[in-house]
Amino acid sequence: MDYNDNIRNKLALLPDLPGCYLMKNEEGTIIYVGKAKVLKNRVRSYFTGSHNGKTQRLVANIVDFEYIVTSSNMEALILECNLIKKHMPRYNVLLKDDKTFPYLKITNEAHPRLEVTRRVIKDKAKYFGPYPNAYAAHQTKKLLDRMYPLRKCGVMPKEVCLYYHMGQCLAPCEKEVPKSAYEEITQNIAAFLGGGHEAVKKDLQQKMQEAAEELYFERAKELRDQIIHIDALMEKQKINTADTKDRDVFGYAVDKGWMCVQILYMRQGKMIQRHSSAFPFYGEAYSDFMSYVTQYYSDNPALPQEILLPDKLEESTDKPAQATASGDSGMTGAGAFTALVAEAASADEAAAETGQVTAQDMAEDAEEREAAAAEAAAAGTVDAAGGAAALQEWLNVKVLVPQRGLKKQMVGMACQNSRVALDEKFRLIERDEERTSGAALSLGQSLGLESLSRIEAFDNSNIQGTNPVSAMVVFIDGKPARKEYRKYKVRTVQGPDDYETMREVIRRRYERVLKEDLPQPDLIVVDGGKGQISSAIDILQNELGLYIPVCGLVKDDKHKTAQLLIGDSAEPVPLARDSQEFYLLQRIQDEVHRFAITFHREQRGKSMVTSKLDSIPGIGDKRRKLLLKHFGSLKKIKEASIEDFRPLSIGEKLAGQILEALKDEEPSV
């Protein structure tokens, strides 16, 4: 029975129950994990009807599947998250860096500390965050360290340190600090991070005024500096709401097989940051979006009070609604968001009090939700209301899918920003194509070539003929193909002869190309002028019978790409210095030079170590390798003591000779 019959038989036995399904390839590897309210409908949908290109790629690799039945949609949501983390399927949305946002932490110790951490554990410490911007977290800690004198050291020192003398530590190492003092500091830090910085600032201003009146000008200056730091830090957090709720506002957009998710973070009524993630997806868009949200909160225990999710509507995925605020349309920045969130907090309550939300409105909303749920159930996919309910039950946090009003506009704003981010990504790709394949095409036209896809470039490197090496880099359609780079140790050339080095390397490279039937380049680029070009052409045409165009890149007195020469006659090719073709040549020359220099340094370093150790009587090839393996480098050998050589069965006399020989030796490069 082939795998098609196996799948067909399994599809006939699928239950009408919620659960998770695991798709496998021919090696038995799990390549996709999904969840469904109705397993029968959802799993069957992969093998019937038409799909977009990326989903077709997934389905083409499925030869078997398993499923796990759960008792509820919430259990399916959690199980899917756990299975994705365990198996890391190739075609699933996988969070990588997004779950490691930093937090500020006040440790639960006898003498607490303030620190930045990315791990939240149940240790009775106080956590504040997350901070999507790690720099902001460290800057906040730096400010709080100046203001509140908690201990800074990891291990208690035997005497007071500089922080005590600077007034930034209570010195528990020197004197007893009452628990009440720490409790007061902890409360002040919590109040500050909870949005109470204005009260702290006002208190500091009063203390500064008092210090100035009592002529304690140094203390007044310290307090003034703290006020300035607070203003600088909080300047970026001026987007306020009428309430002080913590909210995460999600939006997403999809295009060309990519999804972008935007999260707008509001903490204590202030929008502190937005976070954007763009990634390819292969499954059903809303299911993969909910998978992203679930993974995000599975490792993010500092939950907000409210989560706003977009509905599974056409306009919120492919064409997000144009959010408007105060009559202004098309705004995606802080101004529009401020106008939205400043009213959103009280809008629902005001509507209820004034009777703006009518029974008819509520009935229409219910009908819309029922219709959406019925459509989702028929397809076996996750519907927005069901996903939000499961998430709310799991997290025990209010999760809303706004249907109208200002909160829906806030979600629309997040979706619109997702669309803008995706458009920007694709525009950048187009620009990159213009700089790469477009530049390669134009360069080929300038050189009179029918096509210019593959370019191979060579560069030689040596210091007065020592350790001569050469390197080749490959550019395909204007982009580096690093897997095809090659390094060459020069074998036959003695001394600094660049022309003969070029002849040897060209011969070795293209003899192998002919022997192994490797792809031939459309253009060969050598670092140098007429001599290097002629050497390469002579080997190619007269020895190997290859007629591949060869050009040379000449540098100016500042070692910058100056001119392109082509052919045995080394005719200059006129290229504008600010053209994309010229920039492409610069990138090629810089890359091959970097690659050759790096290889030469490696060889020179090995040579220096080898020659120096070989010059010591009693050190042969075997002992030299043993020394380098044990110590790691010439520098470490030099810094070792006589006793350090005993594990290598090297006696005191020979160890002394080694250290004496290396005494005046500089560390190798």
UniProtKB/TrEMBL annotation:
Gene3D superfamilies: 5' to 3' exonuclease, C-terminal subdomain (1.10.150.20), GIY-YIG endonuclease (3.40.1440.10), UVR domain (4.10.860.10), UvrC, RNAse H endonuclease domain (3.30.420.340)
Domain (GIY-YIG) ranges: 16-93
Pfam families per record: GIY-YIG, HHH_5, UVR, UvrC_RNaseH, UvrC_RNaseH_dom
All residue ranges annotated as the UvrC family homology region profile domain in the record: 249-540
Cellular localisation: Cytoplasm
Entry annotated with the keyword Ion transport: no
PROSITE patterns (UniProt xref): GIY_YIG, UVR, UVRC
Keywords: Cytoplasm, DNA damage, DNA excision, DNA repair, Excision nuclease, SOS response
InterPro entries membership: GIY-YIG_endonuc (IPR000305), GIY-YIG_endonuc_sf (IPR035901), GIY-YIG_UvrC_Cho (IPR047296), RuvA_2-like (IPR010994), UVR_dom (IPR001943), UVR_dom_sf (IPR036876), UvrABC_protein_C (IPR050066), UvrC (IPR004791)
Family statement: Belongs to the UvrC family.
Record note on quaternary structure: Interacts with UvrB in an incision complex.
Function: The UvrABC repair system catalyzes the recognition and processing of DNA lesions. UvrC both incises the 5' and 3' sides of the lesion. The N-terminal half is responsible for the 3' incision and the C-terminal half is responsible for the 5' incision.
Name of the featured protein: UvrABC system protein C
